[in-house]
Write a structure and sequence with these properties.
The protein has a single domain, classed as Imidazole glycerol phosphate dehydratase, domain 1 (Ribosomal Protein S5, domain 2). The radius of gyration is 16 Å and the shape is globular. By secondary structure, it is an alpha+beta fold. It is built from 4 helices and 10 strands; from the N terminus they run βββαβαβββββαβα. The strands form 3 sheets. Strands 1-2-4-3 form a 4-stranded mixed sheet, with helices on one face. A hairpin with a 3-residue loop joins strand 1 (about 5-10) and strand 2 (about 15-20). Helix 1 (about 35-45) packs parallel to helix 4.
Length: about 190
Amino acid sequence: MRTATVTRETTETQISITVDLDGTGKYDIDTGVGFFDHMLTHVAKHGTFDLTVKATGDLHIDAHHTVEDVGIVLGQALAEAVGDKKGIGRYGGGMCPMDEALVYALVDFGGRAYLVYDVDLPTDTVGQFDAQLIREFFLALTANAGLTLHLIQQSGDNTHHILEGAFKSFARALDEATTIDPRKNDVPSTKGVL
């Protein structure tokens, strides 16, 4: 079973996340941040992961701590669920056109955390959501999952479309990187370890 449940409690947030890498795309997500919930549903649906996210945070201040800490916990859950990485694809790519917006994602689940976030948002907010928090989410996720992620925006002039394309592309890339290849029975590295 490639599943994990991780919880994190601080004075700012209380978060519990369960992920099943071999799921069917079911989700149950409640962070108290509507737009962010909407984005996380795409990770489950388009990555074909089962994902439960329950978070409460100091939203009376803003959504920063909640969004960042969900990234931390989701990254930890992904690292735990992927296990020893034997047989995984390791690399994955995803692309998602959302009307005028085109974003692609490339992932290496190789143990080295790195984020290239080449996303140019035309507005600072989507509704009441601070759009710059998405970069903070992906920074926290990559650091805690031990994965390299390149998010590259090719086009787009609608912030909602661009960010939704980024999440859908990430989901597809992550699915490809974590899928077990039946032809492989070892760690996908010439070093023999990831």
